Amino acid sequence: MNIALWIAAGVLAAVLLSSGLLKLVTPHAKMAASRSGEWAGAVAPGAVKALGAVEVLGAIGLILPALLDIAPVLVPVAAVGAALLLIGAMVLHLRRRETVPAFATLLYLAVALFVAWGRFGPESFTG
User: Fold this and answer.
1) How far apart are CA 5 and CA 92, in angstroms?
2) Which residue ranges traverse the bilayer (predicted)?
């Protein structure tokens, strides 16, 4: 179970890191003009950059605390934060009737909830 949780956290961290970095480095107009980033046209540029920063911090929080054994309780807290972020993303996609991105987000949400459940419960770092 511990290995599955590490893999799930790693996959989720990779997704959050790549998505966050993309939001941070891509100009707002270019993102809004792309097919996968049309939603950004409805969101302020600063908000897109803030979402990117939150995603990068979430990715860091899923891995580093446990890896460095410094406040490993932050891993499930980061997973809960990622789940909340993904719920917001899913709501945005569903409002825009974007079913494929909403379904992908639902899968990542399941991974985040699995990590949160596993690290708060049976495979806690504090137990």
Assistant:
1) 28
2) 6-25, 46-67, 73-92, 99-120
| DSSP 8-state code for residue 1 | -
The DSSP string of 23-90 is HHHS-HHHHHHSSTTGGGGGS-HHHHHHHHHHHHHHHHHHHHHHHHTSSTTHHHHHHHHHHHHHHHHH
The residue count of the chain comes to 127
The residue-averaged pLDDT of 25-36 equals 90
Q: Which two tokens stand for residue 26?
A: 């891509």
Tokens of 61: 């929080």
- Tell me which residue of 9, 21, 25, 30 sits closest to 55, measured CA to CA: 21
Task: State the sign of the Cα–Cα–Cα–Cα dihedral 59, 62, 67, 71.
Answer: positive
Around 97, how many Cα atoms within 13 Å sit in the side-chain half-sphere?
0
pLDDT at 125 over 80: no
